[in-house]
């Protein structure tokens, strides 16, 4: 490890508070807002755009921890083909967005809302103590809704049987 990396490890840690928002692209803000607001039940908490120096719409939807999802509307944008979560795809660095819900009941309620709207959604999957459902939004963005009762900041989970050296350092400390 370099001297700079050693020095950084001893400095005061950064006070992270979570992800403020993830900026995504849509070519139709109306269908996007209707999906996230009307089907998933998220609150639309901010809108910008329409100004000469900022002509594109930029809308913010809340997941109760601040504006978590933001969409730029670029009408000319070609949307990617649908891709299931956790399935490799060449030329992509983004897999899916996982949005936490407060309880197992909330997870089932979101699944029921999607089904009632005629939206394709998978069965509830259980993995590593979490429960999840997977589906795509109208922009072919892969989404996961998950209930994970474990707080990884308080109770980390190290399940890789052959972890990389950087992970081993943490596991052994």
Q: How would you describe this protein?
A:
There is one protein chain. This protein is an alpha/beta fold. The chain has two domains: 17-76, 2,3-Dihydroxybiphenyl 1,2-Dioxygenase, domain 1; 80-85 and 92-173, Roll (2,3-Dihydroxybiphenyl 1,2-Dioxygenase, domain 1), CATH 3.10.180.10. It has helices at residues 3-10, 29-39, 104-116, 165-172, and strands spanning 22-26, 43-48, 58-62, 67-73, 97-100, 125-127, 130-136, 142-147. A four-stranded mixed β-sheet has the order 1-4-3-2, covered by helices on one side. Strands 5-8-7-6 form a four-stranded mixed β-sheet. Strand 7 and strand 8 form a beta hairpin. It is globular. The mean pLDDT is 85.
Q: Strand count, sense and closure of the main sheet?
A: 4 strands, mixed
Head-to-tail CA distance between termini: 16 Å
Order of helices and strands: HEHEEEEHEEEH
Q: What gyration radius follows from the Cα positions, in whole Å?
A: 19 Å
Concise account of the structure shown:
With 173 residues, this protein is of the alpha/beta class. It has helices at 3-10, 29-39, 104-116, 165-172, and strands at residues 22-26, 43-48, 58-62, 67-73, 97-100, 125-127, 130-136, 142-147. Strand 3 (58-62) and strand 4 (67-73) form a beta hairpin.
Record keyword descriptors for this entry.
173 residues, alpha/beta, 2,3-Dihydroxybiphenyl 1,2-Dioxygenase, domain 1, 2 domains, four-stranded mixed sheet, 4 helices, 8 strands, globular
Topology:
Layout: H1 3-10, E1 22-26, H2 29-39, E2 43-48, E3 58-62, E4 67-73, E5 97-100, H3 104-116, E6 125-127, E7 130-136, E8 142-147, H4 165-172
Parallel strand pairs: 1-4, 5-8
Antiparallel strand pairs: 2-3, 3-4, 6-7, 7-8
